[in-house]
Amino acid sequence: MTKLKKKLIESKTLELLQQRAPGATICPSEIARSLFPENWREHMEDVRDVAEWMSTQNMIDLTQKGKKIAPPYKGPIRLKLRIL
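Below the sequence we write its predicted structure tokens.
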């Protein structure tokens, strides 16, 4: 993944989360669909990789069934803006 793509995904993640109510979550597919509408599934791994990186930088939390999680994980996740 290029640095530009990583930055684009990071920016879109923050943008979508900031548009939601405090504490609300988004699905990683929302990011992929908004950036790459024609072939969003092909970009899901990159979106998840950036989300994992952002969680290590204390920008967002990864959640599953409403609980904060950390990699490695299995199954669907959601992303939540970290409230400091």
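The mean pLDDT is 96.
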